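Backbones bend. To wit:
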Amino acid sequence: LLRMAELPHIGRNCALAACQLLDFTPFECRDCSKHFCSTHRFAHSCPNKSARTLTEIPTGSEGAPLRPYLCSLDGCHGAESIKVVCPGCELNFCLKHRLDMDHSCPSLQKKEKPSVSNELREKIEKEIKDQLEKEQKKAPIEKKTKVFSADEQKRADRVAVMKLKMKEKGEDLIHIFVETPMDGQRRPIGVGKTWSVGRCIDASLKTFGIINENGVFGAKRLRFYSETGEVIEESEGVATTVKDMGNAVLKKEE
């Protein structure tokens, strides 16, 4: 049998002066870049010991590593005292990289989402289609509008104005009810006693969220009309034309 001393050109001698053992598979220290045998791999009084990272592998009194199982992830120098084998790739890893997603395990690429059979897909699509057809065939629900008597309407108007006053901060206001045929609403609004009808129109549009196109060239203006269908001039004072708790119909001029 050939002895190691007879093949000095193969392997390297341990850099530890007290050892100098010729090793065919020497280990390179990541801190001092010197080569050592397996016995002194971690126990050679490395001069760069203070610069080592927290992943340094501790050793026992005889130089044997206390955590001999190295992490297989490139760039990681961590190790554990027990084997931590990934069932997917069957390689050993440290606790930090033990999960398949933490070391980009090749087994992840093999996992595919279960495909739905054509028969099941057609069944689901048919059920969705049948449900949509049922919804379309349903008769639309008609909203029942309660018809108030004259006294009931006045009482409801007073309640609506009282609720509005609780939110208002201004003083010296009158309240009018504005009917907007475009959305079928009739709503109260507080306006100044000295305001013109034109200013009340602008305030109503802003309060009720209606686009104001009165200043757009060529667009039909939104005007106040009386309940009898007569146009209320914008220059007139609202207090003398609509009055408190009165009604005005807001619609585009004809």
In short: The longest strand covers residues 173-180. Residues 50-55 have pLDDT under 50 and may be disordered.
